[in-house]
Specification:
5-stranded mixed sheet; Nucleotidyltransferase, domain 5; alpha/beta; globular
Length: about 375
């Protein structure tokens, strides 16, 4: 499969209903009284998981009011058939019913509910989205890889170091991996995070002010689920891991910064995904996950390699029972680790910034910025 690099349209034609990205009254909400700030919802339906956040703007950030996360395995069997299976659609709709009840209970009026790689690729995605609308009342929007990439980027803006001149943001998903290379060298250090937030308008249209220049970006149609499926017939655990890592690297050949010589100074990688946060939790030996300890953590390449070696020593059964990994992720952690190790092997840095944030947070920032309800917004 060839990595995708579409440069226009943010939503695929598979979108069949008007998404609920405006208020149920038909117009955006406004923050006239901070005490009555509107609630916003963001839902990310990926190849493996269904996740939602409900939040309220607070200053230049937002406060989480409610959340939901469920492993639905929507993309199971997609590699072989090109279609979403009846059982995976059933599991997903059950999860979406819970999301709809939370949205209704909180009286959310502003929301954006998006689907990514599995629905981009499935031949029956149109039928599935109609079924979701019919059975839950929710309108899913299938977004293009470019929008998925930039939403992940803006969610990570608060983690950008003032000294960072070259930034690589990596979002390892279930069905695809997005990489965005950003040149911040022309932006004053104090303005770098703000310049990245402006990317919510698009990688080309960035408005006025200091400009974060997107050098290149790529969406590789390999994530933790799709990469695992491609090497399911390899029995040896270590051999399968090595093959997955090298195969992923081969798919980066058309990403222009991959072949460029870049200085180590002023370079930062931010990784956002369940893989990255799981590796971080394992490194910290967290038996119970704690976002406050993981989000923003910096790990060296040696520390990441140490955790991956531990995973290999554990083997499939050991990983299944390791509380740091969790039963929902143990079958996918090695394919994610293979992607992560490939990335750390080829870029000019020995450190990774861990982000427990991603598409949902990007959706919230983008909606709130568009409505002008953030203290420092809108980012134009």
């Amino acid at each position: 499969m060839t990595p995708e690099r579409p440069r226009r349209a943010d939503a695929f034609q598979a979108q069949v209903e008007t998404p609920l990205a405006v208020s149920r009254a038909g117009k955006p909400s406004a923050l006239s009284d901070p005490g009555s700030a509107p609630l916003y919802a963001a839902l990310d339906l990926g190849t493996n998981s269904c996740r939602m956040l409900i939040a309220q703007p607070r200053g230049s950030q937002f406060a989480i009011v409610d959340s939901f996360s469920k492993t639905v395995q929507l993309g199971v069997g997609l590699e072989a058939t090109g279609r979403l299976s009846r059982s995976s659609m059933g599991r997903t709709i059950q999860a979406l019913r819970i999301c709809e009840k939370k949205i209704e209970r909180h009286g959310v009026v502003r929301m954006r509910l998006v689907a990514t790689e599995a629905c981009r690729r499935a031949r029956n995605a149109r039928d599935f989205i109609r079924q979701v609308r019919r059975e839950t009342g929710l309108s899913l929007e299938i977004i293009a890889p470019e929008e998925e990439a930039r939403l992940a980027v803006i969610s990570c803006a608060p983690l950008v170091n003032p000294s960072t001149e070259q930034l690589l943001v990596v979002d390892i998903g279930g069905g695809s991996t997005e990489l965005v290379w950003i040149d911040l060298s022309a932006v004053p250090p104090a303005e770098r995070a703000r310049a990245i937030m402006r990317l919510h308008m698009g990688f080309d249209a960035q408005g006025d002010g200091a400009v974060a220049r997107v050098v290149d970006w790529i969406s590789v149609p390999l994530g933790v689920a799709t990469l695992k499926d491609q090497f399911a017939d390899v029995d040896d655990d270590a051999a399968r891991f090595a093959l997955m890592s090298w195969f992923f690297e081969e798919n980066l050949a058309s990403f222009s910064p991959y072949n460029a010589q870049n200085p180590r100074e002023g370079f930062q990688i931010i990784g956002t995904s369940g893989t990255v946060t799981t590796v971080a939790a394992s490194f910290l030996n967290l038996k119970r996950y704690d976002r406050t300890k993981v989000d923003g953590l910096q790990m060296t390449s040696d520390q990441i390699d140490m955790v991956i070696r531990e995973y290999l020593v554990l083997g499939p059964e050991g990983r299944r029972t390791d509380p740091r990994i969790g039963r929902d992720r143990h079958t996918l952690i090695m394919s994610g680790a293979a992607i992560l190790q490939a990335l750390m092997r080829i870029w000019p840095t020995d450190r990774l910034s861990v982000a427990d944030r991603g598409l949902r947070e990007g959706l919230l920032y983008a909606q709130m910025s568009a409505d002008g309800v953030l203290e420092d917004g809108p980012y134009t």
